[in-house]
Amino acid sequence: MARVVNVFTGDLVLVPGTPETDPLPPTANAIYVGLIHWQRGGVTLPDWVAAMRRDGPLVWLYPGNPRYAASAKFADGIVLIHATIEALANSRMHVVLTTGHQALPKEVGRLPENFILASYLPGIAMAEHSDLMIHHGGHGSFMAGLGAGTPQVIVPTYSERESNARRMAALGTGEFIVPTVSESGEKQLDVADFKAKVHRVLTEPRYRESARRMARMVRRYGGAWEAADRIERFASSLA
Questions:
Q1: 90 in the same domain as 9
Q2: 211 and 168: one domain?
Q3: pLDDT over threshold 60, residue 72
Q4: Which of these, 43, 40, 17, 44, lies nearest to 28 by C-alpha position?
Q5: How far is CA 165 from the centre of its chain?
Q6: 23-32, 93-102, 190-199, 207-216: range with lowest mean pLDDT
Q7: What DSSP string runs through 13-56?
């Protein structure tokens, strides 16, 4: 076996993305099904989200798990939380921080006045409601932003996420900044660069235009329904 990706190659290969987000050679014989996300039917955002003042941009911050252990470890999102607080505290932006039901580390302390903490919010609805997504670069978050037509700033916390971030930037839908690691093992971020990229993505129309163009493209695919249909047809052919 020449490549580990061959482990995932079977008689039916479905890719939850598009050729633009997950490019593969023609010989891969893969079928792209687009965005596969689940959200309970009829779900809405909490009233407090809808009631938020819109005298400034609404920014959704999703860092993934803030801490996988007591100290800085692989893929921790704490660096993204610290950088966003330092860059956007007391600005005209309204920042909603969600942690996916994970506890916010005590070291974060009291959040700035323009930050609101929510343990969980429905991702598709929140992506559509936001002016900007700031996240860790997971494929689900990356595709949620594209499907919603929302610009993104990604701080990837490991290599697979950096691949998503670079693809996102190449599509023109946002920017990314890669953390560095200090001698003590702590991840660090150039806050000035991060802040500049957030401002650029929010103020330059080309990012929003590219995001909306990609959203139209992503919606041409059948998503979960198409994937299920192809799996059922494949299973029937084996009967």
A1: no
A2: yes
A3: no
A4: 17
A5: 9
A6: 23-32
A7: -EESS-TTTS---GGG--EE--------TT----HHHHTS--SS
Q: Who contacts 224 (Cβ-Cβ below 8 Å, separation ≥6)?
A: 33, 36, 37, 38
Q: Does any domain span residue 238? A: no
Asked whether residue 237 is domain-assigned, the answer is: no
pTM over the 0.85 mark: yes
Distance CA 158, CA 135 (A): 13
Q: Is 96 strand, coil or helix? A: strand
pLDDT tens, position by position, 219-228: 999 999 999 9
- Residue 77's contacts (CB-CB under 8 Å, 6 or more residues apart) are 63, 64, 65, 66, 136, 157
Each residue of 87-143: pLDDT tens digit?
A: 999 999 999 999 988 888 888 999 999 999 999 999 999 999 999 999 999 999 999
What the block records as the tokens of 106 is 């005590």
Tokens of 183: 């001698």
